[in-house]
Amino acid sequence: MTSTLPDLVRGWSSWHREREEELRAPHGWLSLTALHWLTPEPAGFDGIPGLWSATPDGVVVTAAAADGLVVRSVREPRRIDGTVTLHPVDGLPGSLVERGDAVIEVVRRTDSHAIRVRDPEAITRTAFTGVPTFPVDECWVLDARFEPYADPRPVTVDAVVEGLHHYLAAVGEVRFELYGQEHVLVAMAGKAGGLSLHFRDATSGDSTYPGGRVVRTDNPAADGTLTLDLNRVVNLPCAFTDFATCPLPPAGNVLPVAVEAGERSPLRPDRA
Prior knowledge:
The protein is mainly β. The protein is built from two helices and 17 strands. The protein folds into two domains: about 100 residues, no CATH class; about 140 residues, no CATH class. The mean pLDDT is about 95.
């Protein structure tokens, strides 16, 4: 251990503030208010203007200019007046259609398309008071070793939405010791570099979200060594809202011990 507990707490506190500010973003995960799966038959939905349908070519939206739907674009916004087709990519953030302060996100998940509404006035956002966490402790900062695969391996995992699957690429395994035992977790590549470890442990479904939590690491050193800081384990969006489509952990990523570190199950004002 190269840092003292006060140093660890200060670094964690700054990180945690940024984490909560990201959650509080006007159109962040706490703003979700609806999720609708689309079919080839054009359909309307409560509170959402226009008709929406899914085709092999993408999502078709038909609306009048008076409906106030505007497609967000890197070039310039486009008001929908007639019929447009949007092309969301599986597993990535969706195409965005604005309506006033709200945003309708058009997403693709495997071969299915859906729309979900992001509204800054969602109770999950307006009543958000922070994410409960376990106390920060030096014992959760672990020395670990990354053992890369020769080539990424395809991994199929279930999702919180029944019948939906996510197709991921595992890049290797991370080994570490906890409670005197060696444990191994399959690792995915992090979106901004480093590694992402999605796992369940003995707290899952008790003091933490049953669908598991995620910890991200920096890039391993050349010899594979890395630091695993379990104080920074976080919930996936599905812990905060019923309208996310999060993956579940890979089948073997279950720790038989209780990781009483990082984020606990969040409060759910939408279920109060």
